[in-house]
Design goal:
The structure is a single chain. By secondary structure, this protein is an all-beta fold. The protein has a single domain, classed as Immunoglobulin-like. The chain contains no helices and seven strands. The strands form two sheets. A four-stranded antiparallel beta sheet has the order 4-3-6-7, with no helix packed on it. A hairpin with a 2-residue loop joins strand 1 and strand 2.
Amino acid sequence: MLKGRTYRYFKGEPLYPFGFGLSYSTFAYSSLSAKRTATGAEIHATVKNTSVREGDEVVQLYISGEGEEAAPIRSLRGFERIHLRPGESREVKFILPLEDLPKAKVQISVGGGQPMGTTPHVNGVL
């Protein structure tokens, strides 16, 4: 375990977050919905290309607040690369199996990187 040294345990603001400077396009996130199911959970969010050029975005799902003392601050639980034209929106769906889902209520974030600073993302509870 690398407390304070990996994205899962680091409490500061990174100089360069995941994906920094990799796109000329900008994206916005909205309409987060999350629900537990008999087999795990479904998380949906809408991503919109807010720029004048087409671009790719790697949409990332993070979970935090797992309740255990040694639990990481955040964990990447899913990602999907999408391509959007200028002004285009798309709903992205993540499915978490029951064995990957903490039993306690957790914070979730869907966005273009770690849920911190100016990284575009949307937050919710599951």
